[in-house]
Amino acid sequence: MAEKFAKFQRYVLWLYRLYELNTQIAICEPWEKVFCHILIGSCISLILYASYAYVPGYCLRLVGFLIPPAATNINDTFNNIKCATADGICSNSESYLT
């Protein structure tokens, strides 16, 4: 078990060194490394949050657009769309963020 843990530690250290060399952080001073790590971590976390918050709503909207619900009459489908207001704001739009 200890041998597997040591092998895992070496692998993680190798990945970290690879990350440092590929991003050119290896040549920075320690305070610059911290700044770069925080900057990269912030960008990745913002991308992950945006993917979590916005992509499901867009996917549901796309599926609803591509596969509309079965309507008995074609006019029923168009009557459900209430975007023809004077100010141009859809009344049936939903917010997926709370």
From TrEMBL:
Source domain of life: Eukaryota
Keyword Endoplasmic reticulum tagged: yes
Chief location of this protein within or outside the cell: endoplasmic reticulum
The keyword RNA-binding appears for this protein: no
InterPro entries reported for this sequence: Ser_palmitoyltrfase_ssu-like (IPR024512)
Keywords: Endoplasmic reticulum, Lipid metabolism, Membrane, Sphingolipid metabolism, Transmembrane, Transmembrane helix
Coiled coil: none
Cross-referenced Pfam families: SPT_ssu-like
Places the protein is found: Endoplasmic reticulum membrane
Membrane association type: Multi-pass membrane protein
Cellular component GO terms held in the UniProt record: endoplasmic reticulum membrane
Gene Ontology biological process terms, A to Z: sphingolipid metabolic process
Residue intervals passing through the bilayer: 34-55
Associated pathway: Lipid metabolism
Protein purpose: Component of the serine palmitoyltransferase multisubunit enzyme (SPT) that catalyzes the initial and rate-limiting step in sphingolipid biosynthesis by condensing L-serine and activated acyl-CoA (most commonly palmitoyl-CoA) to form long-chain bases. The SPT complex is composed of SPTLC1, SPTLC2 or SPTLC3 and SPTSSA or SPTSSB. Within this complex, the heterodimer consisting of SPTLC1 and SPTLC2/SPTLC3 forms the catalytic core. Within the SPT complex, SPTSSB stimulates the catalytic activity and plays a role in substrate specificity.
Subunit structure: Component of the serine palmitoyltransferase (SPT) complex, which is composed of SPTLC1, SPTLC2 or SPTLC3 and SPTSSA or SPTSSB. The heterodimer consisting of SPTLC1 and SPTLC2/SPTLC3 forms the catalytic core of the enzyme, while SPTSSA or SPTSSB subunits determine substrate specificity. SPT also interacts with ORMDL proteins, especially ORMDL3, which negatively regulate SPT activity in the presence of ceramides.
Family assignment from sequence similarity: Belongs to the SPTSS family. SPTSSB subfamily.
Protein name: Serine palmitoyltransferase small subunit B
